[in-house]
C-alpha cells in the first residue's frame, strides 16, 4: 500500500511558544484519518505546514513519497470561505480547474458538491452552507489524491452534512485519502477509520476508536434522576460525573461494581443505559491521563 502522507519530527515555534512538538505519523492511501484536539492544539498549523502555507522550524513531510512538493496531488478545504464579487459558481469552478494538469470533470465536481442548481449564482450571494459546498468543489477541482478538510461541514444543515459524508465515502472507494479536522465529533466517529489526537502541541493518541476504548477501558452509564449529583460523586466506582437537566452520565472502569452501588437508588433512576464512551468523553479521558 502506498504511503499518502509521511510526517517526520515536525516542530514549530512562534516566538518562544511551542506550537508543534515533534509530530510523527504516516497515512496510507485510502484512509480517512481524523485529526482531533481542543482549540489551540496545533491542528490547523500542522495542516498549513504540510500544505506548504507556512514553514516548519524542523522536520519534514512527504506526499506520496515524493521529495518535491506537488500541489497537483492535494486538495485543501480550509475553514475560511472564499467570496468574490460578480463571479458565479460556474465561472470560479471552471477557472480553478485550469490551474491543474489533470482536473476533475466539471459535472463530477457539481455532483459531489451538490451545486448543480447554483451554477449561475454569484459567489457572494451564496448562503454559509452553500459557500462551504463551493469550497469543497474548489478543493476537488484538481482531482486530488490526498484531501485536507478543515471544519468542512460548518454552516451546512443536517441534510447537507449527511450528503457530504456520503460523497466522502464515494471518494474513498475511488482511492482518495483524507485528513479531516472537525468539531462535529459525532460525524467523525461515523466516517474516520483512525484518529490522531493532539493535546498540548503533541500527539497523545494514534489509532482506531476501538483501540482508544480498549486503551482506556472505560464505559459510561447514563440515566435520568432527580437525585443530587453529590450522591453519585461519592460512589467508589465512579470516575467522573456530568449532569444536564437531570440527565446523568457516569464514567467508570468497573461497570459491574457501579451497577451494584446504584442498586439502593434504582427507584429514583429512569432510563438507565450502559454504553461505550463517545469520542468526546474519550478525548476528555485521554487528556486527564496526560495531566
UniProtKB/TrEMBL annotation:
<keyword id="KW-0067">ATP-binding</keyword>
<keyword id="KW-0813">Transport</keyword>
<dbReference type="GO" id="GO:0016887">
    <property type="term" value="F:ATP hydrolysis activity"/>
</dbReference>
<dbReference type="InterPro" id="IPR017871">
    <property type="entry name" value="ABC_transporter-like_CS"/>
</dbReference>
<dbReference type="InterPro" id="IPR003439">
    <property type="entry name" value="ABC_transporter-like_ATP-bd"/>
</dbReference>
<feature type="domain" description="ABC transporter">
    <location>
        <begin position="5"/>
        <end position="225"/>
    </location>
</feature>
<keyword id="KW-0547">Nucleotide-binding</keyword>
<protein>
    <submittedName>
        <fullName>ABC transporter ATP-binding protein</fullName>
    </submittedName>
</protein>
<dbReference type="InterPro" id="IPR027417">
    <property type="entry name" value="P-loop_NTPase"/>
</dbReference>
<dbReference type="Pfam" id="PF00005">
    <property type="entry name" value="ABC_tran"/>
</dbReference>
<dbReference type="InterPro" id="IPR050763">
    <property type="entry name" value="ABC_transporter_ATP-binding"/>
</dbReference>
<dbReference type="GO" id="GO:0005524">
    <property type="term" value="F:ATP binding"/>
</dbReference>
<dbReference type="InterPro" id="IPR003593">
    <property type="entry name" value="AAA+_ATPase"/>
</dbReference>
Amino acid at each position: 500500500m502506498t504511503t499518502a502522507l509521511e510526517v517526520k519530527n515536525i516542530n514549530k515555534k512562534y516566538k518562544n511558544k511551542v506550537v508543534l512538538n515533534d509530530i510523527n505519523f504516516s497515512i496510507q492511501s485510502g484512509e480517512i484519518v481524523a485529526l482531533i484536539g481542543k482549540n489551540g492544539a496545533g491542528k490547523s498549523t500542522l495542516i498549513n505546514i504540510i500544505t506548504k502555507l507556512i514553514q516548519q522550524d524542523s522536520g519534514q513531510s512527504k506526499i506520496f513519497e515524493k521529495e518535491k512538493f506537488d500541489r497537483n496531488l492535494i486538495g485543501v478545504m480550509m475553514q475560511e470561505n472564499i467570496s468574490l464579487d460578480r463571479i458565479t459558481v460556474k465561472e470560479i469552478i471552471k477557472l480553478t480547474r485550469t490551474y491543474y494538469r489533470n482536473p476533475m470533470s466539471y459535472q463530477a465536481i457539481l455532483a459531489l458538491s451538490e451545486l448543480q442548481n447554483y451554477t449561475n449564482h454569484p459567489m457572494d450571494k451564496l448562503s454559509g452552507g452553500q459557500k462551504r459546498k463551493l469550497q469543497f468543489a474548489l478543493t476537488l477541482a484538481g482531482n486530488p489524491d490526498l484531501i485536507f478538510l478543515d471544519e468542512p461541514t460548518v454552516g451546512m444543515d443536517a441534510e447537507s452534512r449527511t450528503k457530504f459524508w456520503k460523497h466522502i465515502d464515494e471518494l474513498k472507494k475511488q482511492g482518495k485519502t483524507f485528513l479531516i479536522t472537525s468539531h462535529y465529533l459525532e460525524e467523525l466517529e461515523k466516517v474516520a477509520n483512525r484518529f490522531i489526537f493532539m493535546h498540548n502541541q503533541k500527539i497523545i493518541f494514534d489509532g482506531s476508536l476501538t483501540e482508544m476504548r480498549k486503551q482506556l477501558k472505560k464505559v459510561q452509564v447514563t440515566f435520568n434522576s432527580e437525585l443530587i449529583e453529590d450522591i453519585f460523586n461519592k460512589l467508589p466506582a465512579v470516575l467522573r460525573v456530568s449532569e444536564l437537566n437531570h440527565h446523568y452520565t457516569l464514567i467508570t472502569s468497573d461497570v459491574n461494581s457501579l451497577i451494584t452501588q446504584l442498586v439502593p437508588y434504582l427507584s429514583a433512576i429512569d432510563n438507565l443505559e450502559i454504553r461505550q464512551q463517545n469520542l468526546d468523553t474519550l478525548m476528555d479521558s485521554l487528556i486527564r491521563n496526560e495531566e
